[in-house]
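Design request, tokens follow.
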């Protein structure tokens, strides 16, 4: 009996040692940036290297092509989550997709995953490729980054589009098994051992019930590839930093202080965030519009790309036509947004239209545009 207990004790000690070693190895992993999409390019920027891919008419194209659209993907995703949406938008717009730090083809360093840092990198990338006055579309966590970009920049963001990001952590939730992935030691072990079928199953809540994930992407293994492309550090830190950002100040409150027109799109069958709670909050933002994509879940850009594109294009067509008065304490029209002179934030001295007494919203300040003060609900 004593011998048996000694054997069991030895096994337990060995297992603990293996888990400890695995934790050290997994936590220390980093990855360099790499091109993962045809036409993609790596931009080496202060703070990290990101992958960017562009499509559509250039800035020298016709007038309706001069409002660029920037697409920022969700947490544990990649620019491939816009593979079906981007070509539709690119028919009449310059479309820019960016792999966020720690995701897809971007670099995976040991730190730098705060929402503000991510927004700085996006701003620096847009500066590098000459994009200003864009309609910035953020899917889930990507919208938190879009919001931070609007907070810090007076040139880069003309309009914001939210796709299924809740304004607070309380408005969204993830399954218990997913939460285990962030538990110290346990999370690192799961990271190394999780099989591909379990990874795909873990993404199921990002779509409407019954949606076939393989049908949503040109590559049926896309979600598995996106998960495998990350490091555990980027997987853990990106989630924690997004949670900290929305808890510090809810997104609807942040947006109420930023004079940028907002369209918030939610899938009617979202299994992660509560559409009703979220949209009720976003509808309080001055000039905001809310829209629903029926039969879509947390990712209508993947599930219903045509419907989602139609909503974005309609909103983008009005770029520069209205100005929004922020709530008191959020600055005045014609003034740079907070942090506009930070690196990667576009600055407040670039002489662009967005700094010419119009806060990047075009003509018609002072709230005189009645449409800008009206909340509209659009169902498609």
């Amino acid at each position: 009996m004593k011998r048996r207990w000694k054997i069991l004790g030895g096994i337990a000690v060995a297992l603990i040692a293996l888990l400890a070693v695995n934790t050290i190895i997994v936590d220390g992993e980093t990855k360099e940036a790499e091109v993962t999409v045809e036409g993609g390019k790596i931009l080496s920027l202060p703070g990290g290297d990101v992958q960017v891919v562009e499509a559509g008419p250039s800035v020298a194209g016709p007038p309706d092509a001069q409002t660029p659209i920037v697409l920022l993907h969700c947490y544990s995703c990649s620019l491939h989550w816009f593979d079906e949406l981007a070509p539709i938008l690119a028919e009449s717009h310059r479309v820019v997709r960016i792999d966020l730090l720690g995701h897809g083809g971007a670099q995976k360093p040991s730190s730098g995953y705060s929402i503000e840092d991510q927004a700085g990198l996006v701003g620096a990338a847009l500066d590098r490729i000459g994009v200003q006055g864009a309609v910035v579309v953020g899917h889930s966590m990507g919208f938190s980054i879009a919001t931070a970009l609007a907070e810090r920049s007076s040139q880069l963001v003309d309009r914001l589009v939210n796709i299924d990001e809740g304004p607070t952590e309380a408005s969204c939730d993830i399954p218990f098994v997913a939460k285990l992935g962030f538990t110290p030691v346990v999370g690192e072990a799961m990271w190394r051992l999780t099989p591909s079928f379990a990874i795909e199953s873990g993404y199921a809540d990002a779509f409407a019930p019954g949606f076939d994930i393989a049908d949503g992407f040109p590559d049926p293994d896309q979600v598995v590839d996106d998960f495998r492309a990350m490091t555990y550090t980027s997987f853990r830190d990106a989630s924690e930093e997004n949670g900290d950002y929305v808890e510090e100040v809810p997104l609807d409150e942040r947006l109420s202080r930023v004079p940028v027109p907002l369209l918030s799109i939610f899938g009617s069958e979202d299994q992660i965030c509560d559409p009703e709670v979220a949209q009720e909050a976003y509808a309080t933002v001055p000039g905001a519009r809310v829209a629903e994509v029926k039969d879509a879940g947390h990712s209508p850009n993947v599930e219903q790309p045509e419907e989602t594109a139609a909503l974005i294009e309609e909103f983008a067509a009005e770029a520069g036509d209205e100005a929004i008065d922020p709530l008191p304490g959020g600055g005045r029209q014609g003034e740079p947004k907070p942090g506009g002179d930070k690196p990667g934030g576009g600055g407040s001295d670039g002489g662009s239209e967005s700094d010419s007494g119009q806060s990047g919203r075009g003509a018609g300040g002072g709230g005189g545009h009645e449409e800008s003060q009206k909340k509209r609900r659009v169902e498609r």
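Comment from the thread starter after seeing the answer: thanks! Confidence is low (pLDDT under 50) at residues 329-380.
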